[in-house]
Amino acid sequence: MSTGQVRIRLPEKIKAGDVVTVRALVTHPMEIMAFKDGKPVEKSYNFIHKVEAAYNGRKVFEATTTQAVSQNPFISFQVKVDAPGVVKILFHDTQGKIYEGQAEIKF
Amino acid sequence: MKRKLAQPDMFSNGRRRTLRILGASGLVAGALSLGLPMPAGAATGMPEPDEKIADTLKRLFGNRPLQPAGDRIKFDAPIIAENGAVVPVRVDVELPMAKDDYVSNIYIISDKNRRPLNAQFSLTPDSGKASVATNIRLASTTDVRAIAETSKGALYEVKREVKVTVGGCGG
User: Which of A85, A94, B40, B44 has the maximal Cβ count within 10 Å?
Assistant: First the structure.
């Protein structure tokens, strides 16, 4: 799996008006800066710091994540669906890259 | 150093997940935990300074009181986390998500991490239900708090101790 690959999992059967659990996972190293005696020993520093999710263009969820979220961050949240549409999720990392994933909701 | 942690495959439940994660990441987690736990930073390029839990709570909530959540929050966290690098947590808040009164934020905070805030989730009434899950890193055995904030400003807190056997370079 390469960095930035986003996977989204939805329940198999969805009815109008349901509250749907969206599970999203992005492949990302979530690098941290390691310190020894107060000095950085490993300088890579790149992790997902923001996750946004929109349903049919309307923002429904946002997460501020830190380095204390595991590698290959997994996030699960709920969204109430009244109309068929597309869930779009953006993962922002600290080097300015944005990883995008989307999944379609049909009834 | 190898940076390859096993994929915590949240999409296939069970299936020897713990074993695989432990096997592949034990080395890395062990090596990194020698250093300080890592900070939480925005896109600054450098880690933010250490923070004590009291300062974190003050920064996030000011002087607003934290009420014990009772059964308003269902907080799932392992009692013992073998691997601090991947600790699954789930927070379900049993409060209504009405247009004018809903759960606006859920915070996950680990007292003994270098930067205690693990993650903050911002919700809207469109969420339908205030329920989030993620995997967090824990540096050592610590109290983990789940705090729910409503749009009216009330704060509810649940605290749970998680024992960590292998520190997970969390921050």
Answer: B40
